[in-house]
Design goal:
By secondary structure, the protein is mostly helical. It has two helices and no strands. It holds the Pfam family DNA_photolyase. This is CRYD protein.
């Protein structure tokens, strides 16, 4: 979870993620973790800036040969 997604927007000072969306996200992650566990896998969940968290995970695991990601499309106003 990137803390920047839970701060106020710079345009209207409204939260980027309100309480209902946050609850939905948490329930979705919990459900995904349970589904993966039933299939013999797991889900790593971390809080922090992705660029820091991914670096730390790669360092921790030590045997990473590739990292795949997608960039969020941002609307330019």
């Amino acid at each position: 979870f990137d803390p920047r997604h839970y701060q106020s927007t710079h345009c209207y000072s409204l939260p980027k993620t309100g309480p209902h969306r946050l609850r939905f996200l948490l329930e979705s992650v919990k459900d995904l973790r349970e589904t993966l566990k039933k299939k013999g896998s797991t889900l790593v969940v971390r809080k922090g800036k992705p660029e820091d968290v991914v670096h730390d995970l790669i360092t921790q695991l030590g045997s990473v040969t590739a990292v795949v990601f997608h960039e969020e499309v941002r609307e330019i106003l």
